[in-house]
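new request in #modeling-help
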Amino acid sequence: MRTFGTPEFLFILEAARWTLALSVIAFIGGAIGGLAIALSRTSDVALLRAMSAGFIQLFQGTPLLLQLFLIFFGAPVLGFDINPWIAAGTALVLNSSAFLGQIWRGCIEAVPRGQWEAAEALSLSYRSRMRDVVLPQALRIAVAPTVGYMVQIIKGTSLAAIIGFTEVTRAGQIINNATFQPLVVFSVVAAIYFVLCWPLSLLAARMERRHKAALAR
Amino acid sequence: MNYTFQFGAVFAAWPLLLKGTWITIQLSVLAMLGGLAVAIACAWGKTAGPRALRWVINTYIEVIRNTPFLVQLFFFFFALPAIGLRWSAHTAALTAMVVNLGAYATEIIRAGIESIPKGQIEAALALNLKRHEIFRFVILKPALKAIFPALTSQFILLMLSSAVVSVISADDLTSVAANLQSQTFRSFEIYIVVTVIYLVLALSFSALFKLVYQWGLSYPDRR
């Protein structure tokens, strides 16, 4: 039996790059999908609104773990060759699209109604109305909750461990099975997540306070 | 695609699925009650407790909110037995859920307490309202109203994230699915059905909470 030493610690620490890589993929994919969802949710087309509402409901109303399982076990059935990378990436992108879409929808709607009406009165096209008037203002509101949501994404990547993707949590399981020192191993694992997430949490809270102070003035 | 869906084996196991659903509901409701108790105590400690206690509570909240639920679950299930605390998967799962919810709900409840302007209580005192009336109508009801949406969506999130406890085989709905999968090999069908059950649960709870809100907490709010 091995004991928990520097090599074991480094093994878990090195797995953090896969946690980070998966988080970055989920965030970038989720940002693109989330923008599409947020724009659909606030569009004038009833069908788009209904479809995006359904998408959000589906992904916010079911467990992320089951979404991961459906993609991981469903893709081979539908004839796609799939590995844990793609399964985890796809599930996380779809899931964060729904959550970011919902968050950003709120930010778009928080732009005062008068701004929309003024843009319409100036007979700006939809594209210019969004790009030049609404979205830049929504962006300022969106920064703090978006940074806060990144913490959720990083934590969410831990579920990829369950389908065998070797990120921090899975690395911890592997080391635990070899050393039988769960207290040390899972403390190290938790500490790595904490180091990744805490700065983001603090940043989000600070931005939130500053934003509130700016509004109160 | 040349796959034929066979839901027969899944539906034949409906008593198991029903039992798993019941355990998921039970775990979530118990964890909600336990988590609320922890949160009320922590919110009190944070607003009125001594400095050291506040520091402990803040550390608890930050650690829980910045680490994945799965890791917390592993910690309770694997690490604590290693130092002599033995318990079943079910108890470990429930404990992890209570501890997790407690951290999130503390901040929600604190926001509720802080949402009551002091002037309201002073006004109630000036109107000569009795203490229990002040607590009930001026403090509790408006505070509940303010935090109700956040609290209920936290409950639904908790219920959905409880799927993770299947990893330590805590006999919840997702564990039932995993067992069925190894018996019947119809994994796609099973996970479709179980996902739909979670969706129905989430929609039902959110409809129920909306009703409770309308019946119990809606009154003219002029602000």
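bot summary: The domain at 15-216 of chain B is CATH 1.10.3720.10 (MetI-like fold).
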